[in-house]
């Protein structure tokens, strides 16, 4: 098994059903990664120890998911120089707006690259784009991914034209 | 000079004009405190070192001001068991709502006692209340403070009655 | 039975399922408390009578939960000098943002220490921290509580590593 | 001087420049009123004493302005059965949304009739409408007020037609 | 049957389940009312015709419920001098915030007395308060209503004390 | 079959259940239209090719539905001079506010005529109004549509009067 | 002078500085229009009279600007079948969000084509697009307008390249 | 002069005063970049042509700033596989929340790495982190940058301790 080059972290295993989408996308692009639980609030010692090794272990991107007062991505970004991609997890009262603002509004000097709420898949695709500019194999897969998206839209358009909207809605 | 029992911290000295109101109130109640700059993002080492000593040095409350992705109070609360009172600092785009949510929406286990936006004075008064329940001297001053508020309202009401609203508005 | 040192109040018994989490945490820390219903709007006489006795009865912290135009914590803070911790209860239309702003945005002079929406557990933990700085027994339990949180994260991380995310998600 | 039948109250004299608009409108309709300062938070004793007399003194409507955790109108409504009209005062960070929600989201049983942010004039006009349904003199003035509004619009429309928009804008 | 003195209107019969709470409260206070459907947008002719008769028929208050671009209360207020109480109805995307702002933010001159989202009961209680200041029978019932609220809170507090929170929660 | 004069587009077939309401209304007014799937993000080539033909094919209005970072209507408006009507689709975390702002806040020069969230029916009715000012047949149908709305309100009002609100609610 | 085919209306002449941008754009495209003041709230009679003539006078589009509880566009749309384009005017407390929601969230049946806050220019351009699909002269001017926008961007890009960002910023 | 490896783009030169901060940071890290104006809405042809060359010209990251219906970053991300970092520019009515949501809420498949409002400096620092994981020279500078941030905080803390808050505030 290859050494991981992407790290997926989350503050609680209750976020795993969302964050596993990032793992699924990295699997699809055959990019080796590690996935673990680490909390900036509940496990500050583990947080510091984990972040300290990222750069020297050759990790090229960290994908960090967190909800509420979502400090994990920002605290990770303070403790490493590896690029950190933040995934705001949806919350009950604020629907993830609290998570989004806690992650995206970082002060100058310590950036977090933020994606849409619950969009762990897009976080993975940012890491894929970051690798693709250096690695022709990944670039090739990424271009195929884009062509496949374009084709899927065309197929749906063709299906809708053929069936009409009544039949298309029933079939779905 | 007496050993400090309250700590006032902020992520940047640009927050000092707001946070100094907490110091002013503690001066008024003759409660010894320390006031310093420490950033969860820009100075993570200093953050960890500073938080580690709070409890053993006899600090009874931490007042932490921060704006934007305002992680300072939460990170402090993760690193100490001393009560942390968070002051959300106003921001340009979100007017401090980002700061408020980043501070108040902490996960179960690591609480931050949050006050209104920019209201460092109320943060100090929470620490005063916390001390007053154990210290009759502080309790006495706090009761006088409440009576003085009631009296001020009565004086304004009397002035408004005497002058009428036209004259009162001009005089202000 | 010991004399209560924390008071848990709520405006309506419909908030009890949320507020009982505060009681559960205080039970865990063996801190004696009382829990009751008192409404700033529907029972103003009971409100004034209840608040008047808090300080003299030795209550060290009030935990007050309220939703909507959530005046209970603020009105309590106006009627006592004991520290008041406010718990904004979720609402249907504003998801508790109305409750949060009504509780946290108190004027200078009458502070309420506010926690996250529905987070009665964190309100209790603030009272625990307030007691721990004076009481070694509570301090000891609080440190154990923090160590236990750190351990739980480590166990989840170990489990996720052992099982992989597919198996871990199924097992949950 | 006639006995007041409307009461205008505010938590702080800093709200007087807004609230005096209500007085100005009541002057225009020759409705006797009183105007004073009373704070639910800073002067709870004065609050209770003041509210207790409203009904027996023949006050027909209370206009209460407050900002932030704007409890004044709601607390007044809990302490009297006289109709209470709430004026949310603009705030710096939330622009009065906090005031609006604190005033309008009252629980069933204790209503506050809320107007737009800073719109003390409309609060006065609600009290005018409430009096007009019983008092033909006020009803007559109110109908004239509406006709005058309609006429003002027609005059502006005529002016704009005559001058064209370039000249009209310059003239303003 | 007595002549109605309160009018309850709504833009659509889909709001009737909310607005009927206002009718229920008026029934409780034995205040005669009428309840009907009239839309500012879908039935502008009926709107104008209906509003024109309100004052001369002796209606003392209009309770108008509307959701979304909730123009009904404001349009009613423009077409009559009778006091209009607006009830913002909850909506799917904005949870009634759109309704609330459309109703409460009326321009100076044409006020709507606004209550909380879906709180048709409080709208009725405002009309009750408006009648009570002139009618001793209603005033008497209103005072009993307030005493009954205070009593209910006391009974709940007693029940909670007797049972403890575990048993109380189970019983509910 | 007649040549289409309205185009209904959406970024994903998951929006078809909402957007088909526009088709249903156009069917009702016997206005020929086409309906298809085209994504500004996932199929940029198809987007450019499709938009290029709209004007020359005689399309008089484009109805474009999109959710989240809802760029489809704006990108369409940049690529054609045909009027574009945007339908913000509801989203999970922001309930469509993100969609609404992404669609309505277009820069000067490239307008999108925006309707309420999920209100594809109103988008179709805007295109109907646009055609009606030139086509007496459509104008005639549109006037009938308005009369029918007025009549429906009257029927509901009559039903509510006849049954009373208790029986009316049960019958629904 | 030609008969107007576009109507620009606003509820108050304080909105004229914003709404005159629509007039300026229509001047640029040589489209005859009328511009006037009419208020749904303060001049309901004038509102009804004005709206009744729009269709028969050959008006092809109404541009209606309003702020706060911005009912003008919706009330106009209820009273005419001519397409109504709504311009939400900025407000002090809600920055125009109240205006936007009051205009865009119209119920099914009575649509308003809404543009961005204060963007009267885009409202005019929607009416231009509506006319261009029928009138080759307008279509020609509209295509030239788009080409000119593209050219302006290219010129700015060239200027920035030539000068570098330091010099370009100084020159602005 | 070296070939650019980062591209800084913006929809309008009015955003240059914000976006030039990204250029300033890249200058500091001696990373070659290009900076230009390209609008997704006003110059769609230039947009397509520009995006098509990014990957083949060796651009490793695109930094795109946009405000309002801020489609530029998302449209760029649809037209290239190079990582796109989005900078939401502040707006007058929504203070940049519209820009933020339009940029961050991209659909799965076409990600934009979003930073805080107006925070072009952090966008540049994300590109620096992306380069640093491959380039030891950049990594070395980045570590020095972090050490310098930590040192600055320590110096401010020392200054505040030496002067006390009164003198420190005056000196600033």
Sketch the major β-sheet of chain A. 5 strands, parallel
Structural class of chain A: alpha/beta
For the largest sheet of chain A, list the strands in their spatial order: 2-1-3-4-5
Q: Biggest protein-protein interface?
A: A-H, 40 and 40 residues
> What is the first-to-last residue Cα distance of chain A?
40 Å
H/E element order of chain A: EHEHEHEHEHH
Assembly of the depicted chains = homooctamer
List the helices and strands and how they pair.
Eight copies of one chain form a homooctamer.
Chain A: E1 6-10, H1 16-28, E2 33-37, H2 44-53, E3 61-67, H3 72-79, E4 84-89, H4 97-104, E5 113-114, H5 120-132, H6 136-171
Parallel strand pairs in A: 1-2, 1-3, 3-4, 4-5
Give the structure's gist in a few sentences.
8 copies of one chain form a homooctamer. By secondary structure, chain A is α/β, with parallel strands linked by helices.
Features:
homooctamer; 15% strand; alpha/beta; 5 strands; 172 residues; globular; 5-stranded parallel sheet
Task: Describe the structure in your own words.
The structure is a homooctamer of 172-residue chains. Chain A is an alpha/beta fold and 172 residues long. The first copy, chain A, is built from 6 helices and 5 strands; from the N terminus they run βαβαβαβαβαα. The first copy, chain A, has helices at residues 16-28, 44-53, 72-79, 97-104, 120-132, 136-171, and strands spanning 6-10, 33-37, 61-67, 84-89, 113-114. Chain A has a 5-stranded parallel beta sheet, sandwiched between helices. The termini of chain A are far apart. The model of chain A has no long low-confidence stretch (mean pLDDT 97).
